[in-house]
Structures are given as structure tokens and as C-alpha cells.
Amino acid sequence: MKRQIKDKIMALISVKKQLYDEYKNHDEYGEIIHFFMTKDFLNDDNYSLPSLKKINEKTGISYHKVRSRIHKLYDELFDYEKEFSFQYDEIEILCMTKIWDESATFRLKGLKHIPKIGEEMDLFFLRGKFYTSLFHVERVTHEFEDKKQIIILHLAEGTYNPYWHFRKAEAYEKGKYPHMNIIVYLTMN
After folding, report:
1. Using CA atoms, how far apart are residues 71 and 54, in angstroms rounded to an integer?
2. 116's torsion region: left (phi>0), alpha (psi -120 to 50) or beta?
3. In this structure, are residues 50 and 9 in contact, taking their beta carbons and an 8 Å threshold?
4. Cα separation of 20 and 11, whole Å?
5. Tens digits of per-residue pLDDT, 111-170?
């Protein structure tokens, strides 16, 4: 399936630091990558995703060549024989939790062990916000941004119960979750 050029531009910008390290002096890609490095197109609200026309204007490369080079560079990232490797040197751990109307998001550094689903954590510093300090990891997600891997731990209140975890997954698969509270679903069946 052919991807839209704007999706490829967004994808390339999301790993622009890695592209810069690999291709900054490349004859075909160097100018385009240098342009990507000039602004934070993904995270700064003052800048929108650059169009082919904008890249053409800023780099002086013809519209047709910009288009073909974007496609070629993107495809080259996934060509096994080119031996390009995505590299993530930094790890950031975010914890997210929500109980009723209160929520908290915080970073953890220096962990020797990254908690997995079901592992319980006593986070006493959250007691003032949630009136409890016992949480468990309900879900783990990973995001990759530039050279950083972001591990997001979704925490739930209380102890982990594998039975409830299974029933929640079952409700989700049957299409009865997340539109209704899992407790309501379980008491109705």
C-alpha cells in the first residue's frame, strides 16, 4: 500500500536526529535533513508540518526531486541490505494514573528494574493526592521519539488481580469495554 507523502515526511522528522547522524553529508538527502533540523515541526505549535512545496522553497531542490528523495530515503530506512539501524540511547519512564477525577503523570529516573504488568508499587508520595499509595502496573506502552525510548507505565489503584485483568480483556474483545465500566459489565453477566 502506498503511503501518503505527508506521512513519510512526518515519520522522517520524528527520527531526524538519527537521520542527521547517518546522512548529514549525503549528496541526495543532506539538504533535506538539514532543513528538518532547523525547527521542531512536530512539537512546536508555531510550525506546521512542512509541505513538499515548502521543502522545495527552503532547500532549492526541485519539487519533483524532493518528492522522489523523500520516498527513497524513507524506503531506505527499511532496506535490510542498507544496514540502517534505529538507535535509542535515552530511556525515559513516565507513570500515569487516574482515580476518579484526579490524575497524575510523573517521571522516574535511575530504576534498576522496570515494573511489568501486574507488579505492585508502594508510591507513598502519591498518598496526599489519592489517599492511597498502593498501585499496580495495568499496562505498559512504548513510544520512540528521536533518540529516546519513552516507557509509559499505566498505573491502577490497589493490588493486581489476574482474574479481573482477564475479564477486562475479555470484555474489551467482545466490544463491551471501554464504553462501560468493567464492574457494571461483570455484574450484569
Report:
1. 16
2. beta
3. yes
4. 14
5. 889 999 999 999 999 999 999 999 999 999 999 988 999 999 999 999 998 898 888 888
C-alpha distances in angstroms, 60 versus 52, 124, 137?
A: 11, 57, 51
Output 183-188 pairs: Cβ under 8 A, ≥24 positions apart: none
Extents of the domains making up the chain: 5-82, 90-188
SS3 of residue 98 by DSSP: strand
Q: What H or E segment, with its residue span, contains residue 22?
A: helix 16-23
Q: What pLDDT does residue 181 have? A: 53
Q: What is the pTM of this model?
A: 0.74
